[in-house]
Amino acid sequence: MADINAYHGPAEAGFGDYVALLKPRVMSLVVFTAFVGLWIAPVPMNPFVAFCAVLFIALGGGASGALNMWYDADIDAVMKRTANRPVPAGLVPKGDALALGLALSGLSVMMLGLAANWFAAAFLAFTIFFYAVVYTIWLKRSTPQNIVIGGAAGAFPPMIGWACATGGIGIESLLMFALIFFWTPPHFWALALFMNNDYTKAGVPMLTVTHGRKVTRRHIFGYALVLAPFAIWLGFTSVGGWIYLSVSAVLNLLFIAGGWQLLRRTDDQAQADNYRIEKRYFRLSLYYLFLHFTALLIQHWVGAW
């Protein structure tokens, strides 16, 4: 017999739910690119200080994620891809997400300033502001260029890592920024090609919603062409070399070829095979960025050896 006194209300939030607020998958990319920017910089850092710096950059990235989930709870609840996030699922109150985001923002910036330098800390503060305010609050719901301009927030971490070591900005860090900045639109537009219904229901003006999939395919291919020269250029700087250039050449050929394949697709063809090519291109975009930064690390280690 069922216990009529049993509590059947919303589940109480656990530690994992608060961790989920920080968008750990996105944060892992922030941590990795920031680490690469820091490690390949020409000024060596004490390993413990470097570890602390990357940790505080990660906390700043998590703070951005929490603030994003606080503000976007209404549209997250509508989209299938995000409906199970802690706030729309009712596991974490919006106020808690906001408080956690603000607290981690202040903590990460202050501690990064003490561990590394105040230029890097100010850069981190600007990145959090850019993602939470410029992208999440302003651009995301107002323009199909949301992911183009807002993508800068995800491109700043290697520059912050570089600044932790050097106290400034170099052509190498600018090109790492450009690599992520021009990669971001085709990466997210490839996702939007097969998740367009989610964005339509939520009223988010992604390019697929405002201009259609055909225009989006043209933009993906165009950005793949623009991206390649910046990726290759990085190989001719002080952090590049034959290992990086070899990896980058192969990846950019694949990325451009994949973009051309998308460009030639019709909506009927895509629907007929359940967007198989679009999903494959999205996965390729993930490998593209990860392998570029991995190649930079390997190039640095081989050079040092």
Automatic annotation (TrEMBL):
A cellular-component GO term for this protein: plasma membrane
Keywords of this entry: Cell membrane, Heme biosynthesis, Membrane, Transferase, Transmembrane, Transmembrane helix
Principal cellular location given in the protein's record: membrane
Reactions catalysed according to its record: heme b + (2E,6E)-farnesyl diphosphate + H2O = Fe(II)-heme o + diphosphate
Membrane topology: Multi-pass membrane protein
InterPro entries in the cross-refs: Protohaem_IX_farnesylTrfase (IPR006369), UbiA_prenyltransferase (IPR000537), UbiA_prenylTrfase_CS (IPR030470), UbiA_sf (IPR044878)
Molecular function GO labels: protoheme IX farnesyltransferase activity
GO biological process, one term: heme O biosynthetic process
Subunit: Interacts with CtaA.
Miscellaneous comment text of the record: Carbon 2 of the heme B porphyrin ring is defined according to the Fischer nomenclature.
The protein's role, per its UniProt record: Converts heme B (protoheme IX) to heme O by substitution of the vinyl group on carbon 2 of heme B porphyrin ring with a hydroxyethyl farnesyl side group.
Protein name: Protoheme IX farnesyltransferase
Organism: Paracoccus litorisediminis
Gene encoding the protein: ctaB
